């Protein structure tokens, strides 16, 4: 049984405004699904793994903000390991490996395959993964790369040099002579001329290989909780730098199929099945235009060529496809607070924020609670909340008294008043917060069983 | 004293999404003002008239939906005549002429100048208007046109043919031989080769000329109220077709200065002083891009050329400047209800509309009341309203009892409950409407004096 670790990190800044800290690019449901409907990159790669004949368990390595999205999109079908803080791929992979060893009872001989969830690939990719797992199983090398045939001298990838003087270690398995992470474009041109491959970020190894490195170089833990509490002792570095560049005994399986790193609007739009998603009206003079509109108001577009428009609660992107990469450098200026989030209990959308002259502020949200889900029993020191119920039926607890609420009910929650809500049927309500210090941290969560 | 009639009609569909029925293009405050700040086309033309030495009174002919915007932008400085229903320029001009004759006591000899408020012009334009008024005053013709030197064979204008065989009637005043409204482009080319001018929509005449035509062709009224009540008996036709094309005794004063019909985003952007208005971030690869963002969330744009982006509560336009005209044909599909309106008492913005499964609906608004202004004392049969006050102080009347409300107060207004609100200081509040039939018509206005 192979252990697949799927890396679900990354903020997806280049897919602003539709990705944010909690809703990374791998959760955007813009791809077509064979069964009809749309799926996310994460859902797609998990479907592809299951459709391949790879006999495996899947662990998703993610950060805490992504937890609710993961559960919404994947249910309980996978093992999820959450980072205590957001760090680079080396500590994230170590965390999942430690979970496999100490929580899941995997042996040090277990074969692990690490893969990112953002490449858009075909079924051949998973055939290569099977060959990689088999090479690791047979001990042909400590670390097995997937090498992707380069299409341009990019400075975004690591380059793998197969040892052309040696025979294959096995069918399709080449010894690796050297690995260089992110060279200059000039160097990349030379590398490609010399037969180098791109590092796809897919690695296979035996669990003990990484565990032993961590114990030699950094720390040895008794249990998983200890690693979580000492997580910051691991260096904040990529797996590529910490492991791939330093490995002497590596091999590679080449992959020549469809492989696109779906990190920019330009590439994402190229694999979108529809030209537009949402309330969009195109004039007759548009060509190669892709528009995604998550707002309720319409977008009208005409006369544009090679353009991407993406509009959501966080903002609006209008970009030439060739320039869609540049948004990444601006995101920190653009992002204020997330205006839309999917949580395990449901979703919310910020409708309005208003500041008064005397320090009073308001925040208005539209909230949706899934049936059977609840928001925690809580109170706030600095704000009142007004809930106006638009749809559904729920159980409201207010200062330890419970009542049924339904569409048409209005509940005014005072400062310091204990309140909690559980949806019986799908529940939609408008929340108006009003207070002098409207921060998410002004919340005291109270114990209660629904 | 010349009587200027400024036509403020038109829906400005081509400036969607920032213009709508109540907020026509002439109210959009995107032009730079000599005193600093920004002004609308309407404010600009009135400032220009006042800066010229034309001795005149100004009447603005508008429709009912524009009344509050007119008062907000112009105060009491002009006479306003409102159409009982929205009709073409001939009935609108007749209505204002009748107001001048029967309400304002103007004589039939009074000189009237009609001008649209959307051309972007310079001071020379008002010098020509003075010459036109003088020609009408001296009785050189029944109707005096302003002829604009054509720059292209457009099919959007009427063409005026001066009689080149005759001498000038006076300096710069030419006898008009013929007038043709909106020819084909091919015909327009010939017309221009033959020395024709564009009809700018500016006309001068004596009040009696139009009054007499109306009485001969259509109806004679005792007072202004009678004309308003019989307004539909006037043909729904443009002044150009009804008067200009049928006049035998016309003259023309040519104008060669700066004259742009500010009806499309393409032209409006060409006279905007700034490339961007609002929360906009441009990348380094933009050229000739204009962006107006009335939303609070940011717009990021890069890699675009010759593009206009306009975002507001009603929707988002992304268009090549050359194609910005095409939105007009789509507006009827795009427009639902206005999401933002300026009223005399203040402004409101629709934040959210949600429909429940059992017919319950909610509408959430952010409202702003100017100090001293009030919304009428009223009740609703089918909806409750929840007001959460964010800023300012106001007087609330609820079921005939009055109290002071201020930031932090939450008021729940039940169905059938009488309620009214007057701002003491600038007052901002969030309104959540909830009910089964959320229409503007569900309102009973009650008598009360604040």
Report what the structure shows.
- The structure is a homodimer of 450-residue chains.
- With 450 residues, chain A is of the alpha+beta class.
- Chain A is built from 10 helices and 30 strands.
- In chain A, the strands form 7 sheets. A 6-stranded antiparallel β-sheet of chain A has the order 20-21-22-29-24-27.
- In chain A, β20 (340-343) and β21 (346-355) form a beta hairpin.
- In chain A, α3 (89-103) crosses α6 (207-217).
- Chain A is globular.
- The two termini of chain A are 39 Å apart.
- The model of chain A has no long low-confidence stretch (mean pLDDT 92).
- Chains A and B meet through β17, β18, β19, β21 and β22 of A and β17, β18, β19, β21 and β22 of B.
Q: Mind describing the biggest β-sheet of chain A?
A: 6 strands, antiparallel
Rounded to an integer in angstroms, the radius of gyration calculated over CA atoms of chain A is 25 Å
Question: Strand order across the biggest sheet of chain A?
Answer: 20-21-22-29-24-27
Distance between the termini of chain A: 39 Å
Unreliable stretches covering 5 or more consecutive residues of chain A: none
Work out the oligomeric state of the chains in this entry.
homodimer
Q: What is the overall number of helices of chain A?
A: 10
Helix and strand content put the structural class of chain A at: alpha+beta
What is the molecular shape of chain A?
globular
Could you estimate the helical fraction of the residues of chain A in percent?
10-25%
Our estimate of the beta-strand percent of chain A is 35-45%
Q: How confident is the prediction overall: mean pLDDT of chain A? A: 92
């Amino acid at each position: 049984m192979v252990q697949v670790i799927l890396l679900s990190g990354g903020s997806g800044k280049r897919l602003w405004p539709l990705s944010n800290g909690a809703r990374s690019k791998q959760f955007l449901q813009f791809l077509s699904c064979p069964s009809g409907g749309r799926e996310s990159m994460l859902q797609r790669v998990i479907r592809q793994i299951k459709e391949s004949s790879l006999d495996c368990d899947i662990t998703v390595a993610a950060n805490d903000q992504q937890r609710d999205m993961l559960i919404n999109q994947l249910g309980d079908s996978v093992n999820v390991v959450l980072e205590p803080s957001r760090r680079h791929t080396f500590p994230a992979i170590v965390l999942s490996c430690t979970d496999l060893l100490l929580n899941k009872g995997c042996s040090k001989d277990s074969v692990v395959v690490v893969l990112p969830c953002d490449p858009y690939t075909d079924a051949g990719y998973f055939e290569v993964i099977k060959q990689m797992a088999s090479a690791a199983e047979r001990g042909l090398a400590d670390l097995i790369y997937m090498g992707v045939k380069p299409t341009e001298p990019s400075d975004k990838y690591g380059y793998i040099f197969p040892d052309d003087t040696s025979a294959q270690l096995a069918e399709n398995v080449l010894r690796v002579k050297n690995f260089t992470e992110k060279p200059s474009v000039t160097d990349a041109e030379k590398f490609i001329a010399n037969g180098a491959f791109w590092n796809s970020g897919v690695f296979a190894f035996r669990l003990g290989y990484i565990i032993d490195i961590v114990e030699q170089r950094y720390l040895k833990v008794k249990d998983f909780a200890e690693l979580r509490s000492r997580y910051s002792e691991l260096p904040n570095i990529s797996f590529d730098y910490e492991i791939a560049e330093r490995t002497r005994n590596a091999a590679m399986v080449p992959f020549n199929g469809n492989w696109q790193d779906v990190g920019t609007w330009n590439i994402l739009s190229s694999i979108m099945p529809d030209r537009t998603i949402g309330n969009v009206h195109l004039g007759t003079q548009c060509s190669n235009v892709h528009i995604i509109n998550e707002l309720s108001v319409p977008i009208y577009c005409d006369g544009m060529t090679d353009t991407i428009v993406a509009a959501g609660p966080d903002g609006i992107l209008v970009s030439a496809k060739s320039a869609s990469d540049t948004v990444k450098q601006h995101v920190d200026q653009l992002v204020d607070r997330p205006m839309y989030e999917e949580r395990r209990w449901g979703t919310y959308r910020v409708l309005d924020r208003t500041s008064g002259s005397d320090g009073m502020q308001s925040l208005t949200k539209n909230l949706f609670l899934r049936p059977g889900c609840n928001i925690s029993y809580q109170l706030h020191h600095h704000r009142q909340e007004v809930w106006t119920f638009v749809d559904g039926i729920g159980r409201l607890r207010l200062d330890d008294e419970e009542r049924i609420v339904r569409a048409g009910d209005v509940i005014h929650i005072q400062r310091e008043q204990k309140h909690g809500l559980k949806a019986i049927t799908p529940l939609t309500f408008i929340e108006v917060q009003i207070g002098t210090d409207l921060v998410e941290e002004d919340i005291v969560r109270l114990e209660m069983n629904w």
